[in-house]
Amino acid sequence: QVQVVESGGGLVQAGGSLRLSCATSGGDFADYVMGWFRQAPGKRREFVSAITWTSYTYYRDSVKGRFSISRDNAKNMVYLQMNSLKPEDTAVYYCGATRSIIRDSATYESWGQGTQVTVSS
Protein backbone atom coordinates (compact mmCIF):
# COMPACT_ATOMS: atom_id res chain seq x y z
CA GLN A 1 0.00 0.00 0.00
CA VAL A 2 1.34 3.40 -0.95
CA GLN A 3 2.04 5.99 1.75
CA VAL A 4 1.80 9.72 1.07
CA VAL A 5 3.11 12.89 2.69
CA GLU A 6 1.86 16.33 1.68
CA SER A 7 3.71 19.62 1.93
CA GLY A 8 3.65 23.16 0.57
CA GLY A 9 0.65 24.73 2.23
CA GLY A 10 0.67 28.15 3.82
CA LEU A 11 -0.94 31.55 4.10
CA VAL A 12 -1.39 33.59 0.93
CA GLN A 13 -3.39 36.61 -0.13
CA ALA A 14 -6.24 36.28 -2.58
CA GLY A 15 -4.87 36.13 -6.11
CA GLY A 16 -1.66 34.50 -4.97
CA SER A 17 -0.21 31.09 -5.72
CA LEU A 18 0.94 28.00 -3.88
CA ARG A 19 2.39 24.70 -5.00
CA LEU A 20 1.52 21.59 -3.04
CA SER A 21 3.68 18.49 -3.19
CA CYS A 22 2.86 14.89 -2.39
CA ALA A 23 5.67 12.42 -1.81
CA THR A 24 4.77 8.76 -2.08
CA SER A 25 6.48 5.57 -0.98
CA GLY A 26 5.65 1.89 -0.95
CA GLY A 27 3.30 0.19 -3.35
CA ASP A 28 3.55 0.52 -7.11
CA PHE A 29 3.08 4.15 -8.07
CA ALA A 30 2.03 3.12 -11.55
CA ASP A 31 -1.02 1.28 -10.15
CA TYR A 32 -2.57 4.39 -8.71
CA VAL A 33 -4.52 7.41 -9.74
CA MET A 34 -3.34 10.19 -7.46
CA GLY A 35 -5.81 12.73 -6.22
CA TRP A 36 -6.08 15.90 -4.19
CA PHE A 37 -9.03 16.54 -1.92
CA ARG A 38 -9.71 19.35 0.52
CA GLN A 39 -11.72 19.78 3.67
CA ALA A 40 -12.80 23.08 5.16
CA PRO A 41 -13.98 23.34 8.79
CA GLY A 42 -17.46 21.90 9.19
CA LYS A 43 -17.57 20.62 5.63
CA ARG A 44 -17.12 17.27 3.96
CA ARG A 45 -13.92 16.33 2.19
CA GLU A 46 -14.32 17.26 -1.46
CA PHE A 47 -12.58 16.28 -4.65
CA VAL A 48 -10.21 18.84 -6.15
CA SER A 49 -8.16 17.13 -8.84
CA ALA A 50 -6.69 13.81 -9.91
CA ILE A 51 -4.16 12.46 -12.38
CA THR A 52 -3.65 9.04 -13.92
CA TRP A 53 -0.36 7.28 -14.62
CA THR A 54 -0.55 8.56 -18.18
CA SER A 55 -1.24 12.10 -16.93
CA TYR A 56 -4.90 12.30 -17.81
CA THR A 57 -6.29 14.92 -15.47
CA TYR A 58 -9.55 15.66 -13.70
CA TYR A 59 -10.66 18.85 -11.91
CA ARG A 60 -13.64 20.08 -9.99
CA ASP A 61 -15.34 22.88 -11.87
CA SER A 62 -14.46 25.63 -9.39
CA VAL A 63 -10.70 25.16 -9.85
CA LYS A 64 -10.54 24.62 -13.61
CA GLY A 65 -8.23 27.15 -15.21
CA ARG A 66 -6.65 28.02 -11.85
CA PHE A 67 -5.20 24.73 -10.56
CA SER A 68 -2.92 22.34 -12.38
CA ILE A 69 -2.05 18.82 -11.27
CA SER A 70 1.06 16.97 -12.41
CA ARG A 71 3.05 13.89 -11.47
CA ASP A 72 6.67 12.87 -11.79
CA ASN A 73 6.58 9.11 -12.19
CA ALA A 74 10.37 8.81 -11.88
CA LYS A 75 10.29 10.48 -8.46
CA ASN A 76 6.92 9.15 -7.28
CA MET A 77 5.74 12.69 -6.71
CA VAL A 78 2.49 14.52 -7.35
CA TYR A 79 2.06 18.30 -7.45
CA LEU A 80 -0.83 20.73 -7.34
CA GLN A 81 -0.07 24.20 -8.66
CA MET A 82 -2.71 26.60 -7.38
CA ASN A 83 -2.98 30.03 -8.97
CA SER A 84 -5.45 32.89 -8.55
CA LEU A 85 -6.33 31.60 -5.12
CA LYS A 86 -9.59 32.66 -3.52
CA PRO A 87 -10.67 32.74 0.13
CA GLU A 88 -13.06 29.87 -0.61
CA ASP A 89 -10.04 27.70 -1.44
CA THR A 90 -9.09 27.78 2.25
CA ALA A 91 -8.98 24.21 3.57
CA VAL A 92 -6.75 21.37 4.59
CA TYR A 93 -5.56 19.71 1.38
CA TYR A 94 -5.02 15.97 1.29
CA CYS A 95 -3.23 13.79 -1.20
CA GLY A 96 -4.48 10.28 -1.75
CA ALA A 97 -4.11 7.20 -3.93
CA THR A 98 -6.85 5.16 -5.53
CA ARG A 99 -7.27 2.32 -7.96
CA SER A 100 -11.01 2.86 -8.19
CA ILE A 101 -13.54 5.70 -8.45
CA ILE A 102 -11.54 8.87 -8.81
CA ARG A 103 -13.94 11.47 -7.38
CA ASP A 104 -15.04 9.36 -4.39
CA SER A 105 -12.86 9.81 -1.31
CA ALA A 106 -14.09 6.50 0.09
CA THR A 107 -12.19 4.62 -2.62
CA TYR A 108 -8.83 6.08 -1.68
CA GLU A 109 -6.52 3.62 0.03
CA SER A 110 -4.04 6.04 1.52
CA TRP A 111 -4.16 9.59 2.82
CA GLY A 112 -1.48 11.89 4.12
CA GLN A 113 -1.80 14.11 7.18
CA GLY A 114 -2.88 17.07 5.08
CA THR A 115 -1.45 20.53 4.57
CA GLN A 116 -3.25 23.75 5.50
CA VAL A 117 -3.95 26.32 2.81
CA THR A 118 -5.28 29.66 4.00
CA VAL A 119 -6.23 32.40 1.55
CA SER A 120 -6.86 35.83 3.03
CA SER A 121 -9.12 38.38 1.39
Can you walk me through this structure?
The chain is built from no helices and eleven strands. The protein is mostly beta strands and 121 residues long. It is globular and about 40 Å long. It starts with a strand and ends with a strand. The model has no long low-confidence stretch (mean pLDDT 95).
Task: Produce the secondary structure layout.
Layout: E1 3-7, E2 10-13, E3 18-25, E4 33-39, E5 46-51, E6 57-59, E7 67-72, E8 77-82, E9 91-98, E10 108-111, E11 115-120
Parallel strand pairs: 2-11
Antiparallel strand pairs: 1-3, 3-8, 4-5, 4-9, 5-6, 7-8, 9-10, 9-11
Instruction: Name the average pLDDT.
Output: 95
Structural class: mainly beta
Tally of individual helices = 0
- Determine Rg (CA atoms, Å): 13 Å
Spans of 5+ residues with little confidence (pLDDT < 50)? none
Residue fraction in strands: over 45%
**How much helix, percentage-wise, in residues?**
under 10%
Order of helices and strands: EEEEEEEEEEE
Total beta strand runs: 11
The largest sheet, given as strand count, sense and whether it forms a barrel, is: 7 strands, mixed
| Distance separating the two termini | 39 Å
Name the shape in a single word.
globular
